[in-house]
Structures are given as C-alpha cells and as structure tokens.
Design brief:
This protein is of the alpha+beta class. It is built from four helices and six strands, in the order ααββαββββα.
C-alpha cells in the first residue's frame, strides 16, 4: 500500500455537479467571443465614419481676429458681394452704429468675399466673421496666419470660412467671443 504524504496537497476530485469542459473547447469559445467583439467594434467604427455628418468646427483664431462677428441670413445671389440681414451680433456692435435705418426690423448690410469663402451650403443663416470693407460694406475675415501654416501650395486653406448657424456652431462662437481680450466679460 502506498504511503500517503500528509503535507502534499489533496488532489481535486471531479465535481459531480459541474461537468469538466476540455481546455480546447474553452479556448475556442474565448477566440469566438474575441472575434465577435472585434467584428462588432469594427462595424460600429465604420458606421460612425461613413454614416456620421461632418462636424463643423469654428476657427477661434478667425473669430478672435474679426472686429465684427454676426449671425446673418444670407440669400442666394450671384457675385462676390451679397446683401445679408443681421440676426444677432456676437461682437462689434459699435461697428454697426449709424447704419441702422428707421422702420427696419433687422439691419441689412453688404458683405464681400463670398466667391472665395468656404462653407457655403446655399441660402440660410450663417455665422460670419467680418471686417470693414469699402464704403458701407463689410468683408469676410480670412483665416489668420499661424507659424508654419499654410504648408507650401496650400494657400487655398487661408480663404475665409463661413459657418452654418447650428446650435453647436453658436456655442463655439459664443465661447470664442467670450475668450476675446477686448470682451469686458472675460
């Protein structure tokens, strides 16, 4: 009869309530779960990339460089200079003083620079960064130069940007204007 060593750990006895699953089967199940999660994650990322709407990001340097930032209704018209109706002024109210006409609900001004502007999606309400133009008109503010920007041959990226007036763009514009150094609220 073999002598038992009392200090040796007892050998586990198979449990009658739980059948033993072979190691190979457990590995296959883990591999299947991992592949399934990978495929689902990849499908979700593809859905976000292909099905999502392109987000509009407001250029803070452009807003900070503009002496006048407005939300305006822009109508469809040919040419570089277009009449716009100002809906809201974010910054630069003093630039508009003296332009108001009696019996006008909203101030209408002429704005140039639409032919080279990026962001035009047809008639609608846009956020416009403006500066004084010729006579009583205004011009769209181009993107300011940054050190090392633009890369050679990419000067087209310096064209002015206009932004569709969505809730997200309004929030971004309000935040950029709040950070402006000449804003008394900052």
């Amino acid at each position: 009869m073999p002598s038992e060593n009392p200090s040796a750990p007892p050998t586990p006895q198979p449990s009658a309530s739980r059948p033993s699953v072979p190691v190979a089967t457990r590995r296959k199940v883990r591999l299947f779960v991992a592949i399934t999660l990978y495929v689902l994650w990849t499908a979700f990322i593809a859905y976000l990339a292909l099905g999502g709407k392109e987000a509009v990001v407001v250029s803070r340097p452009q807003i900070l460089a503009a002496p006048l930032v407005v939300e305006a209704d822009v109508s469809e018209s040919a040419g570089d200079v277009r009449p716009v109706r100002i809906v809201r002024v974010y910054r630069g109210q003093q630039m508009l003083s003296g332009l108001a006409r009696p019996n006008e609900e909203r101030l209408s001004v002429r704005v140039s620079g639409f032919e080279q502007a990026r962001g035009w999606q047809g008639p609608g309400t846009y956020i416009l960064a403006l500066q004084r133009g010729h006579e009583d008109s205004f011009a769209l503010v181009p993107l300011p130069m940054s050190p090392g920007f633009p890369p050679p041959g990419r000067a087209d990226q310096m064209r002015p940007l206009i932004y569709p007036a969505t809730p997200s763009v309004r929030r971004q514009t309000e935040e950029a204007v709040r950070l402006a150094p000449d804003n008394p609220g900052s």
